[in-house]
Amino acid sequence: MTTGYAELHCHSSFSLLDGASSPEALVERAAMLGYVALALTDHDGLYGAVRFWGAAKARGIKPIIGAEVTLAEGGHLTLLAETQHGYANLCRILSAGQLAGQKRQPRLTLETIDRHAGGLTCLSGCRQGVIPAALLAKDGPAARRAAGALWDIFGPGRFWIEIQRHYLPTDARLTAELAELARWLGAGVVATNNVHYAERSGQRLHDLLTCIRHHMTLPEALAGGLLHPNSERFLKPSQEMAILFHGLPQALRNTLEVAERCQVCLDFSSQRLPIFPTPEGHTPESYLYALCEQGLRRKFDPVTPQAEAQLAHELGVIQRAGLAGYFLVVWDIVRFARSQGIRCQGRGSAANSLVAYLLDITPVDPLRHHLLFERFLSEGAHTMPDIDVDFAADRREEVIQYVYGRYGEEHVGMVCNVVTYRARSAVRDVAKALAFPPDVIDQVAKALDTRSAEAAAETIQGGLSEAEFPASSSLPWRILSELLREIDGVPRHLSIHVGGMLITAAPLVEVVPLEWATMPGRVVVQWDKDSVEDAGLIKIDLLGLRTLGAIEEALAHIREQQGVAVDIDHLPLDDPAVYAMLQRADTVGCFQVESRAQAQMQPQMQPRCFEDIVVEVALIRPGPIQGNMVHPYLRRRQGLEPVSYAHAALEPALAETLGIIVFQEQAIRVAMAVAGFTPAEADLLRRAMSRSRSETAMAALQKHFMAGALARGVDEATAIEVFRQLAAFAEFGFCKSHAAAFALVAYQTLYLKAHFPAAFYCAILNRQPLGFYPPKVIIGDAQRHGVPVLHPDVNHSLAACTLERYTSSKAIRLGLRYVHSLGEAWQTRIVERRGSQPFGDLQNFCRRTRLPRPVVENLIRAGATDNLSHQHNGARRDLLWQLGGLSYQEEGLDLDVPVEPVALPALSLAERLGWEVELLGMAPGNHVMALYREVLREQGILSSRELCEQRDGKVVWVAGLVVVQQRPPSAKGVVFTTLEDEEGLMNLIISPGVYARYVRTLRTASLLIVEGTVQQQRGVVNLLALQVAPLGARTDP
Amino acid sequence: MTRLWPEGEPLKVWGGEESPVAFVWQGASHRILEVCNRWRVHTCWWEPDQAIWRECLKVATDTGLLCLIYRDLFSGSWFLSRVYD
Fold this sequence. Notes:
The complex is a heterodimer of chains A (1037) and B (85).
Chain A: H1 23-33, E1 37-43, H2 49-58, E2 62-70, E3 76-81, H3 84-100, H4 110-115, E4 120-123, H5 130-136, H6 140-154, E5 159-163, H7 171-185, E6 188-191, H8 203-214, H9 218-223, H10 238-244, H11 249-261, H12 284-299, H13 305-320, H14 324-339, E7 344-347, H15 354-358, E8 387-392, H16 396-407, E9 412-420, H17 423-433, H18 438-447, H19 453-468, H20 477-487, E10 491-503, E11 514-516, E12 523-528, H21 529-534, E13 539-545, H22 546-562, H23 576-583, H24 596-605, H25 610-619, H26 622-626, H27 630-637, H28 651-654, H29 664-675, H30 679-691, H31 695-711, H32 716-730, H33 736-755, H34 757-765, H35 775-784, E14 789-790, E15 802-806, E16 809-813, H36 824-834, H37 842-849, H38 853-861, H39 875-885, H40 909-920, H41 928-938, H42 944-948, E17 955-966, E18 975-981, E19 984-990, H43 992-997, H44 999-1004, E20 1007-1017, E21 1020-1030
Parallel strand pairs in A: 1-2, 4-5, 5-6, 8-13, 9-12, 14-16, 19-21
Antiparallel strand pairs in A: 2-3, 3-4, 7-8, 9-10, 10-13, 11-12, 15-16, 17-18, 17-20, 18-19, 20-21
Helix pairs in contact in A: 1-2, 5-6, 12-13, 12-14, 17-18, 17-19, 17-20, 19-20, 22-33, 22-34, 23-33, 25-33, 29-30, 29-32, 31-32, 33-34, 34-35, 38-39
Chain B: E1 2-14, E2 22-25, E3 28-43, E4 52-61, E5 66-72, E6 78-84
C-alpha cells in the first residue's frame, strides 16, 4: 500500500512537554499507514533524530530530518534538511539559536538562518508561523512581506507555503488566503498535519503535557484557550488527508516532491575522531605500536609469546577499524591525569584489551584473567567500542578542562541525558493537572515506592485510593492511573550525562546541535549516549569515582603518619588478611563488597582468591540473585549440586564459574562454541539481548543461533536450552573485565582497611556520601575495629576529618564539616582564627571567632566545645549558660555581663546523645541503643551479638537504629532493612504483607523493636519480621 | 439574535456524515442548501460525563434557517444547537 502523501511536519515527545509520541511510535504508525516518507520536526532541536532515523530505516520509511524553529522576531518556521550540507547547516542554525539565548529559551534570527540556508527546504509553518498569523490578523501586507523575505532567503522551489486543516472554523478562509499568497509569490503549497501524536487517542497526553508546561490544571488551561480545540493532529491515513484537501490535490502531491529530494544520512562513523597530534615522523598507528611495545617490556618480564601474539592481533583489528587515534586520545588523557597526581583507571569492556593494559589505561592483565578482547572490539563489528575511565571524583573537572583545552571547544561536547517521567515526578505533575488537592498529591507521591510511573499506575488502580484516601473517592483516580501509564518514559527534560564527552574531527556544530547545560558555561550536545553511539560517533566517558580519591587520601595519611609508601597499584593479590575479612563479611566501607547483598553471600561463598572477588562483584547483585543465578553457583561451589554443562562444548568457557553463565564474555564464547558464531555475531547477540530494544532482532538471532547449532550437530533440545540460558542471563550478565577492574579497587580498599584502618576510615569519612552505609555506620565499624572516633572539637578539628594521636594508637578526629548547618565559611574561620593558639575558654572563642550566637550554640550542643568548659560533667549546660551571659560583637568594645557560677545538673546521656544525633547525624563514642540496653535486657529483647547466637527458626525480639532500608525492584515488594546497635548490625527481611501492615512506622521511626523468626543459614543470620513497633512506644530509658 | 439549545435538539438526518442533505426537527423537515462551515471539537475528556466530541456544521436551509447542527462523534447522533435569526 502506498500513499499519495508524506507528512512533513511532525512532533515527537522530544518536543518537550508538547509532543506525545515517541519517534518509534510515530514510525510504527506511519509504517502501518503505508507512508513512504516521514519527517521529524521537533522544536528547536534534533534530540530524537537518531532514534527516528534508525527506526524509519528499519521499517523501510524514508526519514526526513528537520526542526520547527522559534524565531526571535516571533513565529515558527519549519526547516527540512535536503542534503548532508543542509543537515550541517541545520545543526549550525539550531546551535546558534540555542547558544544566543538561555537554557530552554533559544534566540534565533532570520539573519542567522539566511547565513546557513544552503541545502535546506523551508515550509511557512503552522498557525504560529509569521505568515498565517498575519493572515489571521487580517494583515495581508505583513504576510506578503514575510513570504517575500523567506522566498529571497531560500529561493524558488525551496520555500513552500504550508497549509494545515484541522477542522477549525477558520480553516476554509485561511486555506484560501494561503493558496492565494502562494500564487502571488510563485511558490508551491504543501499540506501538513502538524502532528503532535501518533493516534487520535494521544490527544489526552498532549493536553496533559500542555498543562504541565503552563503549570495549570486542565480546566484552567481550557478556560485560558491553551488546549487545542480538537483531536485532529495525529498521523492520518492518506485518504483522510485527501478528503481534507480535496480542493487542493497539488498540496498533497507536493509533499512527495519535497520528500523525494531529501537525502540525509546520520551515520557519522567516518567523521568521528579528532586527529591526534602524533610526534614527528609517526602516524597514529606507528605511535600506538611504539607505546605498546614499551608497555609490553615493562609489564611482561619476560615477554611471552602469548602476549606478543595477542598484541599483534589486537593492533591489527584496531588498525583495520581505524581506531588507533582513539586509543591515543584516551592514553593521553590518562597520562595527563596521572601527571597531576589524579588517581584513575579504565573500567568496562575496555579492560578486556591488552593494548589498553599496556597503555596503562586499564589495570588488569587480560591474559592472566582469561578475558576476551572480542567483547570490547571485534572484526566486522558495527558497534563502536566504549572506553570509560574513572577518575578521583574531586579532581575530575581538571581532566574535563584538559580535554576542552587540548581539542578546542568547537570539537568537544558533553553528551546529554534524557530525564524521563518516573513515578513520583509523574504523579505530582499529572495529579496537579487533574486538579487533585495538594495534600492528597503529596500523600500519593510519598506512598509510591516504585520508580516507574507504569507501576505507580498499577498501585493506584489497585485501590490505593480506596484504602488511603476514602474521603477523596470522587477524584478521577482511574484517569490518573491511565495517564500515569501513558506518561511513563516520556522525556521531561535534558541534563548532562555524568561524564560522556564527544570529540569529533569535524566541527561538532555540524554533526549535532549544541545547547546550554544547566552548569554555567557548559555546553551539551542534543543527543544522549545511545544516539551518539548509534550515529557512529565516539564518546569517552570520564567518570568520577569517589573511592579513588579516598584511596589516594588514605595513602597520603599513611605516608604522613607512618612514613610508609604503600605501592597500592602492585599489591600481591593473595593477602590472607583480605580474604579472612571477606569470609567473615567484615566489609563495611569497602568498594563493591560492602552491600547487604554482598555481606549475605560472602560467608556462603568463602572467597579465597582474586578470581573469587571478580565473580562476587559480577554475581552478587539483586538482578542475578532474583534471576536465580547466584544460588545454583553457591550450591555448586559448596558441593551441594553437581557441576554440569548443557553441552560439552560449553566447558572451556564455563568451567571457571562451575557451568553457570556469569560473564558477558562467557556468553560470547558460548554462542561461538555452540552455534559457530563469529565473535562479532556473538557480541551482537549479546547486545541485542541486553539492550532489549528490538524483539524482532532477538527473534531473528534465535533463528540464526538454532541454524548454527543444528549445523554443528547440536540437538534441537540442547540448542533451545542453551539459547534460553543465554536469554535468561542477558538481562543480568556482567562484563568480566569490568568486574575485574572493580575487584581490583575492592581489593585495594580491603587491604587498606585490614592494614591501615585509621587512615582508611578517615579517608572514607572525608568523601561522603560514598558507598552503601551512612557515616554513622562507618564510625561504628571503625570503633569496633579499634579506631576511636572523636567529636569535632574547635581546638583540634580541621574542616575535614584528621588523624590524631590518642593514647597509644591513632584516632579519627571528626571534622567541623560534620556539624550540621556549620557552613564552610564558619569552618574556615574557626580554623584560621585558632591558628596556632588554641581557644582558652568560651569567651576567648567567641571573641576571636565572632561567630553568630546560634552557630556557637550548635557547636556547644554538638560537643565541639566540651574542652572549653572547666566542668567535666555538665560541660554543655555550663557553656550554654555562659553563652547567655556573654556579649560580643563584630566591632567595638566587648561588654561582659558578669556571670554567676552556678552548679548545673549534668545532661543525661540521652539528652547528650540526642543533641549529637541532631547536630552530627551520629553519636561518636556512644550508640543511642546503649541507652536502652538495660531496659531491653530486662524485657528479653536481644542485641545484634545475641541474635547471631540464636538457632534457626526461633522467634525472638530485637531492637535497633534503622541505618539502611532497601526495596530492590527485582525483589517483588520485599524490603531489606538493616538495624544497628552498639554491638553491630542486624539484617531484617520484611515481606510485602508485613511491610504494608507497618508502613507508617517503617517509614518514619528511626528506632525499631522487631519480633521475627531467626533464619540461620551457613553463617548468615537474617530476621524475618513478624511485628514492628517504634522503640519508645513500649520502653523509654 | 439566536436561539440556543444547550442540551441539543435531536435530529434525524439524511445524506450521510460527509454531506448531509436534509434533517427533520420537531416534526418539520428542512433541506440543506449549503454547508457554510464545518469544524470539530474534542474536549473535557477528563470529566467522562461531560466529554464533548462533535463535528459542527453551520448550514443554511430551504426553510430560511441559518443554524448550527452537530453530530455527536461518540454516538453518531445528530443534534441542533443553535438557530441564527
